[in-house]
# Entry
Amino acid sequence: MTSRVSTAAGRVWGPGLRRRLLLLGLLATLSALPILFLMPLFGAPFERDQGLYGVIARGWLQGSVPYRDLWDNKGPVLFLWYMAAFKLLGEGVVAPRLLAALGTAAAVPFVLCSAVRHSGDDAVECDPTLMSQARALPRSRFSVVEGVGAASDAFVSGVDAKSELALELAATVVDMESYWIGRAAAAFNIPFLSVRAISDPLTARLPPLERFIDAEGRMNWRRLASHCVTKPRAIVGLLSLARDAHRASANLASYAFDLLPAIAGVETATQRPSKAVGRVLEERR
# Structure
């Protein structure tokens, strides 16, 4: 049971080393773009205003009194920028432009980190009333954990990738649907509660399902069969996954059998759902 669901879209990069290398490469490429774009303008002559800024900055460097000997109706930051450029990179038309390009490049990682942090804070809160009703259910037959859910736009099959995602987002469970369902519910002002039955815990290594399912969610059975022929041990993993998914489906149906009447305010029936009913409920979900 999750109290909030965050999106982790675009965050499943794989093992830690590969993810860090990709991130460093992305930062280096984005940081180099301002320099590459401005490079053709480095040697262009100063325009009238730029030439005035350069003259005032050079005069201030040579001891002129600011806003008495040399001045313009601009604040001091602009002239100080030109002074820093002349002092660090030498007097010339290239210095202030190169310093501006370097400053823009240095700002890229901070802008990117801010965007990533903002996207990570995009969370859907579960309805507090539904949470209270779920907490009030007896937990003698279930192992119920309340925490934070994360939604991914890709399968997370590796143990390293799941561990890193859980650590980065402090997530208890990762799925591909809850966040978007919660967003749709919030858009129409519908109370939302996410309850998940775990079929593959953090330490379970899943078969590489992302290789066999396309962007539309369709299974490529020919590719799956070819994979099982070349790697027979994958059959064991698929059978284990099917068994665990069946157990999770039955547990979720049984929990829903108690939760839904509590939400509706009616008494729970005494007859428990069968395994077949559990499968139907899971398929309809």
The longest helix spans residues 233-264. The chain has ten helices and four strands. Residues 202-285 form one domain.
